[in-house]
Design a protein that fits this description.
Blueprint: H1 6-20, E1 22-32, E2 39-53, E3 69-74, E4 87-90, E5 93-103, E6 111-117
Antiparallel strand pairs: 1-2, 1-4, 2-3, 3-6, 4-5, 5-6
């Protein structure tokens, strides 16, 4: 018996996010130079995502605040994995990444679920 084809599931997720989502940028900020006077540079990586409101049931929990967004980030064409120090630019507005939960069954990252905050 063969295993489940997660690559096909990933392709389906990429297709659906491309069809119903929007373009955004994943902004990676890097620091160079001495610790006392670092020079920061940023690089934007184009990405596709679906931006959703958090359920009212989650608001008020210790990690979720009013105004937080839940984002499904596609892996299509994205050469980096998001980290908590990155920023997500949605519609020209920069958001901090509060939490990252990759959906990666069988070792294949299908998509990233992010909690972002303005």
């Amino acid at each position: 018996m063969t295993g489940f084809d997660y690559a096909k599931t990933r392709a389906t997720a990429e297709h659906l996010i491309a069809k119903f989502g929007q373009q955004a940028q994943l902004r990676r900020i890097t620091s160079t130079g001495p610790d006392y006077d670092p020079a920061q540079t940023s690089q934007d990586f184009a990405c596709m995502l679906v931006d959703l409101d958090h359920s009212q049931a989650h608001i008020g929990d210790t990690l979720t605040q009013r105004g937080d967004r839940m984002v499904y980030l596609s892996t299509a064409g994205l050469s980096i994995a998001p980290t908590l120090v990155d920023r997500l630019v949605i519609g020209g507005v920069e958001h901090a990444i509060v939490d990252i939960a990759p959906l990666s069954p069988g070792g294949t990252t299908v998509l990233w679920q992010l909690q972002v905050r303005q």
